[in-house]
Amino acid sequence: MRHLAIxxxxxxxxxxxxxxxxxxxxxxxxQMVLFGYSIDRQPPIVIDLTGREExxxxxLHTLVDPSVVKEAHNAAFERICLxxxxxxxxPELLAPxxxxxxxxxxxxxxxAAYELLRG
Length: 119
Fold this sequence. Notes:
The mean pLDDT is 94. This protein has 119 residues and is an alpha/beta fold. It has helices at residues 16-19, 21-26, 57-63, 75-89, 108-118; strands at residues 3-11, 31-39, 45-48, 69-72, 105-107. It is 36% helix and 24% strand. Strand 4 (69-72), helix 4 (75-89) and strand 5 form a beta-alpha-beta unit.
């Protein structure tokens, strides 16, 4: 695997627009609701994390694998929220206080803005 495209849906009682992503994801009631992904541009898979589904071990390890490029539309949001999720659910993969490496992420929102400005 060389590329992992990610889209998440989350919940937090914290007002994201008022506080930003760090307090939003750090709240005790923060939760990941849906995790959508595509490996190497294959058809997407969506996992409902509100029920009995869990992220597959392959995906969990891919999130912390520096050789895999992670891509999201708002990569900063996804990266911080996934870091919070891993801190709570899988501290063996990502220690509390450590965040997923931003150098491994690509943001399609930034690319889109760049293309608009380029004209």
